[in-house]
Here is the input.
Amino acid sequence: MARQSFDTPSEVTADRGEVLVDGPGKVEIAFTPAAAAETSQRLLDGAMTAQGQQVEKGWEAERQIRLRRDPKEADADDRPATADG
Here is the structure.
């Protein structure tokens, strides 16, 4: 089954000692407070990793555009120069 990505955040509420998540794609989940806290940390970690991947993808796309213009840039180091080198 293919995965579907959503750009709409889930609604989160607390009720009778449970954390309720109502999200896009008809997602409805009830967590204990401990499971909700761990899940929130895992979501945050995953979000930061995915954002980094998107940034890297953008850099690679930009590099490919530059290479089409000037193939000599294939080995160019895009990192800023440091004081020692």
